[in-house]
Each structure stands twice: as C-alpha cells, then as structure tokens.
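Running this now, will post back.
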Amino acid sequence: MYIVKLIVPILLSAALLTSCGKSDGSSKTEENVSAAQASSSQAEVQYPRSIKLMAFGDSITEGFTYKGSYRVPLANMLEENGLSQYVDFVGKKKAGECYDNQHCGYTGYSIDPISESVTGDVRGGISGKVDELFDLYTPDVVMLQIGTNDILSLYELDDAGTRLKNLVDSIFEKLPEDGMLYLATIPYMDAKDNTYISAEFFTVEAMDKYVDEYNEKVKTVVQEEKAAGRNIELADVNSVIAKEDLQDGVHPTKEGYEKLGKFWYGIISKYVKGE
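Update: finished.
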C-alpha cells in the first residue's frame, strides 16, 4: 500500500517536470528562431545602402548643351550631403566635373534603332545597348529617360508604348532581383525654336500633343510593370522642366539641368537612405 502511494506521486511529479522541461525548451527555441529571423531581416538592407547607379538615355542624359547634364548637380548634392560614398555612378562614358562622371547617355539615340523615318532621320537605339552595358557595369539602380528622339523622328509613335515596355522588360532581365528602375517622362519641346525641330513637320500644338501622348504611355508602362511585381517608379521630369528652361527647344539650359539634378537628388537620396 505504502509503496503504491509513493510511486504514484513520484511518477506524476516526473511527468510534470518532463512536460515543463519540454515546454520551456520549445518556447526558448521559438524565441531564438524569431530573434534570428528578425536579425536576418534587419541585416538584409542596411541604410544608407551602397548602390551602383546608371544614368541611361539620350543627349539629355549625356549633356549635349551642358557638359555633365543633370548628373553634375546630382553628384555635387550627393557629395555635399555625405552620400557620395554610397553612390557609384557606372557607365561606359565620362563627362562633367564631379566626383564620379560615368554615364550611359547617347546623343541622338531613340528607344530602338531607326533606319528609316518620316523626317529622314537615322538613329541608334539604346535597346541595343542593354546587354553590353548591363553585363559590364551591373547597376543596382537605373535612371532611364528616352523618347525625345522618337518624337523628333516621328518614328512609329503609336507603337512607342510597346517598344518602351520591351526596353524596360529587357532591363529587368539584367537587374538584380532587388534592383530599381526609375522611368522618366520627357520634357515638352519648344517647336518655336527650329534649331533641332523641323518646322516642316511640327507646330507648337502638334509637338505638345506628341509629348503628352508619349508621357501617358510612360505612365502606363510604369503601372503595368508595377502590377507585374517589378521595382519601378515614375520620375516625372516633365513636371520639373518647362519650355523656358530649354536652350534650343530640346535640351535644358544649365539652370534647367540644375533643376533636374535637384529633382533626381530627391529621388536617389531617399532610396539610398531608405526613406
């Protein structure tokens, strides 16, 4: 009798101790896993983050009327605000006086190569540069502005949205999974200035209409790519540069480029700082 009475409490106590031990261990394991996951998540991106930045586009990116284009004021502002150590401009070309003047701006280029056009223009296309440049320089972030020369050549404008989307898709095939593309609208062009705008083909009203229609296509591409889960944002350059900021009806003045540089600094600095 006594033996049975003693054994039962002992067994119950042992069971309780074992159960408590298992529960405590499991709880600690779960806490450790959660802490490790949180630590891993925090370690994924540390701010400010370092990026390789590609300025990709046509003469407005290269700086046809102002050497270094918007990239010079952008670089200067990054340097002045202690962010230049985090931003490495990459590209095959160099222009402008700043801490890093590499870029991928190609004067006269359109979205795709143009061998024949209404205006008689023959142009290179930046779509043909993607494989070479992105394999060489592996950018993390791209600032893309293109389309001005497609309008100046009146080249298949109805199909410009499809051609632009194909270009964007080819870029995303090369960008890292967490890479970012900023797709820019284009500024209005002043058809009153015939330095580069042919009066034979363009009136002021017609030019404004072409630009408006193209920029709507840019916005549509951004929306479609976002819906597909791509890291893309609209950079509305058209809202920053007015016709009064143009030197020759197409390209910005020095002051116009400074406006663009400030605009791009706002975008890039926020990305680097994770704001």
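Residues 14 and 174 are 62 Å apart (CA to CA). More later if anyone needs it.
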